[in-house]
Structures are given as structure tokens and as C-alpha cells.
Amino acid sequence: MFKKVNSIDSCDVFLDIYNSAILNFAEEERGEATSDIFYQQISTDINYIYYDNDDFPKAFFSYKKHTDYLFQLTSLYVRKECQRMGIGKQSILFLEEMIPTGSVLCVKVLKNAPWSINFYYKMGFMDISNEMEKEISEYGLKTNPWSRILRKNL
Asked: How high is the pLDDT of residue 34?
């Protein structure tokens, strides 16, 4: 079950899920976070936490609406022990239900996370064109040496 989050009281839940999810990275590639990084995200993005039937938080996602047709998935993290259970897929499908048909959903993905890139490809995302990257760069969506941007037409 997804619950919308507006309160910074959820920062610790986000932090707990995030620190579990990043265990997929090699130890030298991960950086433990503090709840401070989620304060701004919760206040500026639209956020949801996925809870199981026992009200245990297993995942969260956040997104932004840049224009009437351009949306950005800013975060999607699933606890390491809960991955490969369809929760990430459920999160994307839940988000897509809220976005108008004809829109574009973008996500910035770390290049050193091939499992994440493959997940988004399986969900129908594709690499953006140079032309689209120029169009969306004004919203802070730019590729760099450590990330790439994927898109999905809805």
C-alpha cells in the first residue's frame, strides 16, 4: 500500500530504506547518508512510501512535475532484502497512473548501477536523445560522467 508523505517526520524512514538499498554498491562506492538530505526532498517533491500489510515501510519514491507534460522520478529506493519482489515495478506503475497520458517521465540513473538501468529498460524507459536533453536541461536534468537520463512516454 502506498501512502503519500508530506511531513519531514518521514526523513528517518527514507534514510533507513536508502541506507539498505545502497548496499548493492561496492563499499567504496557508497556513502551513508543522514536524514538531512531528505528534508529538502520531502518539502519540494511529491513523495510516497510503500508499506506492507504489517505497516512496515519497504520502499519510497519521489517525483517532480516540471511542466504539464514533463515529470521526473527523483528517487526510487527499495530495501535490499525486499528487492526483486515487484515493489519497484509497483511503484512505477502507481506513479504512471497519476501522470497524464501523453506526458514524459524522466529519471536520472547512476552509470555504476547497471541493475538499475536494466530495471528501467524493462519498465519501458529508453535513453533520451540529444535534442530532448537540451530541452529538459533547464530543469536540472543533465547527463554527466556518472549518470544518464532515461525517459518513458506515457
From this structure: 73
**Joined grid coordinates for residue 80:** 535490499
Rounded to two decimals, the pTM is 0.89
Cell numbers describing residue 137: 536541461
Residue appearing with cell numbers 510516497: 48
CB under 8 Å, gap of 24 or more: what pairs does 16-19 form? 16/57, 17/57, 17/58, 17/59, 17/60, 17/77, 17/78, 17/79, 18/77
What band does 30 get if pLDDT is binned at 50, 70 and 90?
low
> Taking 90 as the threshold, does the pLDDT of residue 134 lie above it?
no
Phi, psi of 106 (to 5 degrees): -110, 155
Supply the pLDDT for residue 28.
64
Which residues make beta-bridge pairs with 72? 64, 106
